[in-house]
């Protein structure tokens, strides 16, 4: 999935990939200034649930998150305010880029206002 995301988004955005949830959490803690998180979530594992709980309880809570999911049922486990953006796999890369652009534009407008 990292390859698909790199191929899809690297022309427009600077990406910081992580091979797994633990590596992702470590990078989030050390990097700091991240505008958008795209998470390929496998909710069969406790790690993914832990990641969502970490995001909702951290200073990154105000950062938008796009989840890539295999099963829509998982959305029911979380408040829509925490996870308003998601794509079911397989997803359309063009729609993912459009969603990322829209989210980042809204984020920029929030900073300016």
TrEMBL record:
InterPro entries, alphabetized: CheY-like_superfamily
Organism classification: Bacteria, Pseudomonadati, Bacteroidota, Chitinophagia, Chitinophagales
Matching Gene3D superfamilies: 3.40.50.2300
UniProt-recorded name of the protein: Response regulatory domain-containing protein
């Amino acid at each position: 999935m990292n390859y698909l995301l790199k191929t899809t988004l690297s022309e427009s955005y600077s990406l910081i990939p992580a091979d797994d949830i633990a590596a992702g959490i470590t990078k989030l803690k050390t990097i700091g200034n991240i505008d958008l998180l795209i998470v390929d979530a496998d909710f069969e594992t406790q790690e993914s649930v832990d990641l969502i709980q970490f995001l909702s309880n951290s200073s990154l809570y105000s950062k938008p998150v796009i989840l890539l999911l295999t099963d829509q049922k998982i959305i029911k486990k979380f408040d829509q305010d925490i996870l308003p953006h998601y794509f079911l796999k397989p997803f359309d890369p063009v729609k993912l880029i459009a969603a990322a652009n829209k989210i980042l534009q809204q984020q920029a407008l929030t900073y300016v206002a």
